[in-house]
Amino acid sequence: MIFPIFFTFFLLLSSSHASVQDFCVADYKAPDGPAGYSCKKPAKVTVDDFVYSGLGIAGNTTNIIKAAVTPAFAAQFPGVNGLGISLARLDLAPGGVIPFHTHPGASEVLLVIQGTIIAGFVASDNTPYLKTLKKGDIMVFPQGLLHFQVNGGGTPALAFPSFSSPSPGLQILDFALFKNDLATELIAQTTFLDAAQIKKLKGALGGTN
Amino acid sequence: MIFPIFFTFFLLLSSSHASVQDFCVADYKAPDGPAGYSCKKPAKVTVDDFVYSGLGIAGNTTNIIKAAVTPAFAAQFPGVNGLGISLARLDLAPGGVIPFHTHPGASEVLLVIQGTIIAGFVASDNTPYLKTLKKGDIMVFPQGLLHFQVNGGGTPALAFPSFSSPSPGLQILDFALFKNDLATELIAQTTFLDAAQIKKLKGALGGTN
Amino acid sequence: MIFPIFFTFFLLLSSSHASVQDFCVADYKAPDGPAGYSCKKPAKVTVDDFVYSGLGIAGNTTNIIKAAVTPAFAAQFPGVNGLGISLARLDLAPGGVIPFHTHPGASEVLLVIQGTIIAGFVASDNTPYLKTLKKGDIMVFPQGLLHFQVNGGGTPALAFPSFSSPSPGLQILDFALFKNDLATELIAQTTFLDAAQIKKLKGALGGTN
Amino acid sequence: MIFPIFFTFFLLLSSSHASVQDFCVADYKAPDGPAGYSCKKPAKVTVDDFVYSGLGIAGNTTNIIKAAVTPAFAAQFPGVNGLGISLARLDLAPGGVIPFHTHPGASEVLLVIQGTIIAGFVASDNTPYLKTLKKGDIMVFPQGLLHFQVNGGGTPALAFPSFSSPSPGLQILDFALFKNDLATELIAQTTFLDAAQIKKLKGALGGTN
Amino acid sequence: MIFPIFFTFFLLLSSSHASVQDFCVADYKAPDGPAGYSCKKPAKVTVDDFVYSGLGIAGNTTNIIKAAVTPAFAAQFPGVNGLGISLARLDLAPGGVIPFHTHPGASEVLLVIQGTIIAGFVASDNTPYLKTLKKGDIMVFPQGLLHFQVNGGGTPALAFPSFSSPSPGLQILDFALFKNDLATELIAQTTFLDAAQIKKLKGALGGTN
Amino acid sequence: MIFPIFFTFFLLLSSSHASVQDFCVADYKAPDGPAGYSCKKPAKVTVDDFVYSGLGIAGNTTNIIKAAVTPAFAAQFPGVNGLGISLARLDLAPGGVIPFHTHPGASEVLLVIQGTIIAGFVASDNTPYLKTLKKGDIMVFPQGLLHFQVNGGGTPALAFPSFSSPSPGLQILDFALFKNDLATELIAQTTFLDAAQIKKLKGALGGTN
Q1: What is the ipTM of this complex?
Q2: Closest by alpha carbon to E149, among E202, E198, E174, E112?
Q3: CA E28 from chain center: how many Å?
Q4: Which of A139, A171, D140, D163 has the fewest CB atoms within 10 Å around its CB?
């Protein structure tokens, strides 16, 4: 049995323009748009665009929150551009905490690989959903809701969050409020916090005003 | 010129099943799903499903924040179900404030009709975007980002936010943190706020623990 | 309490490529695509990209329809690019009318701020949905359906339509039919209108043939 | 080589709830929602849900427009529910015409199988795009824009439109305007047509008022 | 009755930036992104961008599978870019076959115009759905599932598949497995096929290793 | 400072219908639709709907492929319904293999936690993308493309795939072809495989005909 050059189809396809198909590896040098980065020319795509090794390295947790988050979003991992998914790595030393934050553009599923993590989110009706997660547990945090993770044991914890977007975004509450030049008075007015409390956290986080 | 019953088309269509077309007015008694409420039977739909008068009435601002928000989301206004849009009304008495909040499911455009409003949002990189809005101004708050509105003058202010979803959601920061039974210690750990500050706001907002 | 440079996360993020996150302010000079305009470089974005003042100015209604529509779509208001929402302003002098039209790409919610407006749309099954709207009323026009607005009183009316897309499009029926060079005979054949009627409207609207 | 019952996977899957996967054949008796009809129970699905023979039968063109449209939308063809696509059949006798209409919920590609068809659409800027299509030609009509098809020869024409939605909708201009009880005066005001013209078409199409 | 230049609206619109509306004809020379090709400048768009005549020509079936597929995807037909739909032509000589394949990015509806076609797809639970299609029949193949078409009679068959995406993609099973340099041993391990079988097909299709 | 019951907003919201917001935990007893399962009544939702522990248990790999896949899709894990994401667990004993398969409804990112995995996918143009993944590596498999995973070392491997859909689907090539009653002759015709090879695999996998 012999198959000569046979599909008219393939002749047509190969004589056509580079097609928008299969994947769209991020080309960081071309313009980006609401749907993501522009696509790398197919001829320049290699398997390494689809593989990312940065999550294999523990983040540095010798900091005040004893925690580190290492993202593999479209901005770091070009292969996920346009594909509706991304990952990150979360290291929590004993006592470590990822303070209240949201992902404006994605839901998250957290997978615990090592240690114990107390995780929680708060729904729009202010109900908190809290759980102590053990190795192998997963927990979903619906898009845009405030949530946190805390090391729940005396040993280092390791977890991997997955996101429903290649660019989930991350807004950390304390940073949004205190790590900029928003006037203390305005923050007080819009959070009901005391001015002294605000100034204390601005000082700690490097905010001004 | 005479047009007898002419389109085979219409005979077919009318002999078919109630079709999923044009609109899907919310039927609050049937199950809802990820895309919204079930659709009311076409025969039961009237023009009043597409009109809502609740935003014509000023909200009651005789409260501690001197402000009121009146929603016309899919849960109140059945005609917008499935159509990717909804509105609300915002009344701000002098000194009124809508404290920091997010809409997990929608971007917002605020339209100022009366008075002056100081509005702002904070981006993921912690940059604040602030503006004093006058009558006729509009400002967009991208999906999921923390934002606020404050009456910027000595007279009542009136504004109408539009949302890119029939169910934008609303998470008010202070309520999410303090108006529930989250343990003070856990909040302290995940917000860096002092316990005294937390207890004070829990007391004011009706939270416990 | 002191927070040294602490999140590995942020070091990583800031050393990365400009990310597709939060918002995508329109860059009118770069290519656009099916999802909207390309994004402005983050460093060039200012609060003024998110605020638009053009709707604060009454449109000029000294014209034959005694009406004016002022859009704040992505083409005018760069901040809404990619965010699924836009607004416009509608001025109707006494006797003013926005003739039958559609928005091919969006549903609309009309908010009446002043005066009285008779609004209506026609569903696919030819049922008209009509309502006289008063100040504060809102009415939804599902995507793509023919609808109109008419000043229903003796005083000027003001309304603000919101749209479920940053680029809703607008196709005005009379303009589509008569304000171009479509042959009168072809229009007659595809609308059942009399040739004399077509020629009269072509003359009024500047059409030819 | 022998493969015993081997995947833990499949045991788990089969012990689970009927899954939302692969397809969602319309169950016309359960509630529908913004995303389409509810899904038939998997056990009741047969190959005949995925096959439709109604387009093999010529529509009856012995009517005033000498044309017939036969739809295979989700309301007729349950297998396309939720799959983003549907078809129809278009028969045009000599002199036949499908008058100006829109599909509020889909773009259309028309495929000409027999005869000659003059087709056209009008863009938002009122530019008409017209073409005489021969056998084998395809033409795309972007979502929501006014378009028409006319038999361009002396022989019957046959074409098949495809749509980018299982429920594209169909709004025929003349029917929307004249085949209902909209007041003649209101139509005149919102279309600029003469009252006599309106009454004539109301009479022909069965409208009142 | 005279209509002077009247809509403030149009002055605004025409003084604005080229808008993202109505359609986005593919510009093959600009970058593409996850949502498709960049848009051609409106001024360069003509009706020929919306019409494609390539499907009017029979594909060359003098090959081993006695079949030909001619695509009219966004890469060939610029007018469908961003519109969620595309078409193709399928010619099957007597004995012709389109072997098992998937479209990773779209559902398909096949329309039989001439001859008889045995078509089938296999669902995730391994159930095959098979049907012999006659002229005028349509069959839907849900997104991503393996399917095939075989000429079911002694005469040439002609069919037109429609797709729910402008870039549906096409992965032909035999080509994916055998028309490249994947090691025979690896294929054997991941398909359970015998090495001799693999080598035979690699030889026929031009694969190596 | 005291905050009496203050937001008009909340009174309105609480007097309204159960809203479509935040999340839509699967109610397996109500109808499902194209967008997923119906939502559980908010009052019945608990934190356990958002947590799943099934991935903490190693799958049973004492089978012919020495591998096991344990899904946490919407059918098993109700909290991810409607949220665009799901996970699974993959156990590969030494010599284990997940044969060629596709996910018709999702892209996948595989995260390697233990051992070494040789993974690969084939693009539409038949190019294979292969990589040996070590602990901590992630690799993305674009939606709908054929891919496989093989234990690349002499020790057990553990990995967690994430998916861009709560119901990604899974079509295993060998099962789709051989584990059903498709006629050997038809399979031969549509795969180019020899009848003997087909019969051998049908025998091994439990297929007939």
Answers
A1: 0.91
A2: E112
A3: 18
A4: A171
pLDDT digits (tens, 9 = 90+) for D83-111: 999 999 999 999 999 999 999 999 999 99
* Cβ atoms of D109 and E85 closer than 8 Å: yes
Q: Give the count of alpha carbons within 13 A of F94, CB side only.
A: 3
CB contact under 8 A, D136 and E56: yes
Measure the CA–CA gap between A160 and A113, rounded to whole angstroms.
8
Contact yes or no for D123 and E84 at CB 8 A: no
Which of E107, E163, E173, E175 is the best substitution to test chain F (most F C-beta atoms within 10 A)?
E173
Say how many Å lie between the first and final Cα of chain E, rounded: 80
Spell out the domain ranges in chain C: 63-169, 174-205
Instruction: Classify residue A185 as exposed, middle or buried by CB count within 10 Å of its CB (0-12, 13-18, 19+).
Output: exposed
Mean pLDDT of the B149-167 span? 97
What pLDDT shows up at residue B62? Answer: 95
Q: Dig out the tokens for A163 from the structure.
A: 């996101």
For A10, list phi and psi in degrees, rounded to 5: -75, -30
Q: Shortest CA distance to A162 belongs to which of C49, D14, C145, F164?
A: F164
- CB-CB neighbors (< 8 A) of B170 in chain F: 9
Q: Which pair of tokens denotes residue D103?
A: 């599909």
Q: Given an 8 Å threshold on Cβ–Cβ distance, is F136 in contact with A55?
A: yes
Cα distance between residue D1 and residue D5, in whole Å: 13
Residue B142: CB partners within 8 Å, gap ≥ 6? A104, B107, B121, B123, C22, C23, C83
Residue B22 β-bridge partners: none
Joined tokens for residue C62? 């000294």
Confidence bin at A64 (pLDDT 50/70/90): confident
Tokens matching residue F157: 């491997």
Fold of E63-169: Jelly Rolls (2.60.120)
Neighbours of A75 (CB within 10 A): 24
- The 10s digit of each residue's pLDDT in E59-101 is 999 998 999 999 999 999 999 999 999 999 999 999 999 999 9
Helix orientation angle between D195-205 and D184-191, rounded to the nearest 10 degrees: 120
% residues pLDDT > 70 (chain B)? 90
| Token pair for D99 | 């008058």
Binding residues of A for oxalate: 103, 108
Coil/strand/helix, residue E78: helix
The DSSP secondary structure of chain C, one letter per residue, reads ----S--HHHHHHHTSPPP--S---EEEEEEEETTEEEEPPGGG--GGGSEE-GGGS-----STT-EEEEEESTTT-GGGTTTT-EEEEEEE-TT-EEEEEE-TT--EEEEEEES-EEEEEE-TTS-EEEEEE-TT-EEEE-TT--EEEEE-SSS-EEEEEEESSSS---EEHHHHHHSS---HHHHHHHH---HHHHHHHHHHHT---
**Residue F60: CA atoms inside 13 Å, Cβ hemisphere, count?**
11
Cα–Cα dist B78/B95, whole Å: 34
CB B150 within 8 A of CB B110: no
Alpha-carbon distance D190 to D168, whole Å? 26
Whether residues D204 and B81 touch (CB distance < 8 A) is answered with: no
- F56: amino acid identity, one letter: G
CB of C140 closer than 8 Å to CB of C164 = no
- Whether the pTM exceeds 0.90: the reply is yes
C interface test, pick of A39, A49, A53, A70 with most C CB neighbours within 10 Å = A70
Which distant-in-sequence residues (6+ apart) come within 8 Å of A103 by Cβ? Answer: A141, A143, A144, A163, A165, A168, A169, A170, A171, B144
| Average pLDDT score over chain E | 92
Q: In angstroms, what CA-CA distances link D206 with D100, D178, D186, D209?
A: 18, 8, 17, 10
Of B21, B27, B35, the CB nearest to D167: B21
